[in-house]
């Protein structure tokens, strides 16, 4: 208990002061709402519960899961379509156990497997914030309609029994207050593992591979364990903080895709003390090494240019075939510079000493070429256009993207890696689907049976417990 | 196969005008077919072409003309345009017949016309009235600015064209060169302003911020500058169908004078026919005229839409003069985009009764190439050569201008006897620049000299020969009287109820600014008219 209160006081001295002082009850409520707002930021609720261009928390954001698109719900306090009718207990059940007020199960796209570790006081503050600090928006968000058998939400009861660890967050008394605060932020609020821990065939996080890196649609959430080669061992604490606060560390990496969203909506808004706590904890995550990795991703490469050998050779032509060097020059070099060195201020980052090209995995390189970068952080509007089918700059073919990716890997990154047109095509479809997503096509009835069995097991278990 | 194609709206031409119409209508649920005479080029290929060409000032070079759909080329000259008359050379225009059209290479200047530009005859007793007013177009100007992504001075700078909303984006910070000019000229009686441009000053519409490659012409390598290809892509994604290499050579008209079909040739010369309810001619001011004239029938002996005999007449451009000198301070042109500021103190006023309005603009193009050519011609070598190149690159000033010109029926385009590879006639142009413009150019020369003095100029060189500025206007001129104009205020042919023209050819005055934003605004207005006609208005 003592550790718990210490953790809280590290982040929320304000509340303690308000309670100890002579402040009126209303002030305490205001403080609670404020604290809830901070917690909601830390939990990054807005990223998933806000549709592009939509009202905050009104839902409708499509989360591309390998099983189909899962739409987030309206979590504004509207009584018509939102969660305005939720009691605090119902809110708690949804948040920490993935069970809606109507008893239906949420899909674990909602990271209740992490939120289950939230402290009761924090749940209370979040409830107050969502009831009193968020503007109500009427109307339910678009409903999620996954294909059978995934449409059977009851199956999640079985899934939860197998994979939902309901144990509350346990501070480690042997570690510092800061470490424990970091652990709470990483494990519960920021739910880092939902992306950075690989998932098994049934889409559950693999506990033995915690933070070793996981797929996220076309993107790859890298290994953030303390391993010096595969993970963040080569990063200083202050570099981790800088990354979380600004979305980039020149000479190492920059946030794109879902991580850019996490920085933009959540991490950059955290207090310096909380960011430091996260860094302390992350730097202490048990190291996991990928045996294929020879050196850290940010070590690879050096600036160099083929520009002089290109000019005048191809001349002026209307035909549209070219190699990677020509494509790189035309598509990348105007911003990243002909030698791949980036701009002086590194707004356009260097391509060498860049984990996107040095890591033992090409998914983020392909994804960033397809989808670009959009990140508002550190007072900067960082943007790189995508070159996928919806590009308004220049849509490139699978082969063109493979060619330019292979060229940049050879010139600036890990030359052992190769990208094929097939890899690009798969990335356009949202990445290689996991086994679970492939199964329906192969043996739909088997999966249906499995779901029924899991459901039955869950039901029996539930009865036995009650009995 | 494509002979059976039919659509609610057939759009001929895929430049900014046609693409905007196509995108609007496809988005509203209409079936849209776009016919483009030229091929599709990818941006990266154009960039590589530019980087591989020796003469960086030849803006047509990265876009090799297709044999079946030639466009003007000047180095070497392909003689596509047959130019005649006392000022023939001054109409040696550049345009592109490729998917996306000529805004692949432009200065991106996105000016609105002035209210008085629309009423030259009634206000100043010269030229013509459009038959529509600035106020009719104002809402469309704003929509065009949003569609193209225009950044401009949101600091209260008055550009003479009243606006109800701020520019979608704030303007870019001025380059050092432009900032110095801004400071010096505005302190000495000139009015120099940061000009509105269709160029991103922040990420906008999935495109990045300008990073100053300084080759807006001939190609923005990163898509920070607007080009018509954007709305071609958007139109296709909204369901419009685009046929490339489809050279329209005839519009077919029925007994009720309605257009029923467009005929086109493929690169092999085979003919095809497509039908539609409405036709939008958006093939630029010259090529659109060509199609109308080639479509002559027994009833329409002078070509379609031509009962007024004005099709192809009233050709206008913005005859330009220039000056180059060495300033007594380093200004380092070449940082940022190629053009950022304009001198606008003679865009409007009573003087327009007597002489042409104009806009002067500072060239911010990097000067190393010209500096190097000059330094080499001086016979320098080694360090002296390097120093001279460096000095000239930093100190060279180049200013150019657009002058208004009045619509004169004798400035005209006809079909030449000379044919292209498909056997279609080439445009033959007769052009003369009148006293109205020449008088103004004398005044411009004096302004150049004054500016030169303010910068302690050396080696001042006036270029008083009128240069073409590729703003092709007047050829299918708008007016309220069908007897002396081709289209009405909604850009609809007086003679054909279902034929619209989305081209700068409809513009009834040239004014003193680039015409692209006005084309875009008129095109959006056409799209609204057609949405209503098709029952697709929301």
Automatic annotation (TrEMBL), chain A:
PANTHER family: ALCOHOL DEHYDROGENASE CYTOCHROME C SUBUNIT, BLL4482 PROTEIN-RELATED. This is Cytochrome c. It is found in: Cell membrane. It comes from Crenobacter oryzisoli. Residues 31-134, 177-286, 319-412 form the Cytochrome c domain. The chain crosses the membrane at residues 442-461. It comes from the Bacteria. The keyword Membrane applies. PROSITE patterns: CYTC (PS51007). Keywords: Cell membrane, Heme, Iron, Membrane, Metal-binding, Repeat, Signal, Transmembrane, Transmembrane helix. InterPro entries: Cyt_c-like_dom, Cyt_c-like_dom_sf, Cytochrome_c-type_DH, Membr-bd_ADH_cyt_c. Its main location: membrane. The keyword Transmembrane helix applies.
Automatic annotation (TrEMBL), chain B:
Residues 8-40 form the FAD dependent oxidoreductase domain. Keywords: FAD, Flavoprotein, Oxidoreductase. The keyword RNA-binding does not apply. It comes from the Bacteria. Its cofactor is FAD. Belongs to the GMC oxidoreductase family. SUPFAM superfamilies: FAD-linked reductases, C-terminal domain, FAD/NAD(P)-binding domain. This is GMC family oxidoreductase. Residues 407-522 form the Glucose-methanol-choline oxidoreductase C-terminal domain. Residues 196-319 form the Glucose-methanol-choline oxidoreductase N-terminal domain.
